[in-house]
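pasting for the record
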Amino acid sequence: MQVLLVCLVLFFVASELYQWIQGMTLPLPMLIVAGVALAIASNLRSLSVPSWSVQLFQVSATLPSPVLPNVSEPVTLKLGMTEFSVQLPNFIY
C-alpha cells in the first residue's frame, strides 16, 4: 500500500513538473549558453588539458602505508542445501 502511495505521489509530481517546464520560455541567448554548457559537459573527457593547468592543481601529499589483512579461517554459511565459504580479512592496524 505504501509503495502504491509513493508511486502515485511521484507520478503527480512528475506530471506537474512536466507541465511547468512546458509553459516556460527562455530567451535565445540563454538557450545558446545552455547548449554550449551541455556540449562542454558531455565532451569533457575528450578535451585535452594544457600541461600548465595540471601542474597548478597538483597536490603533493604522503599517503599512509596500506593496511595489510591478516587472513583468518574462512566463514561458512549454509543456506538450505547450498553452502558458501567466505574468506574474511582480519585487519591489523
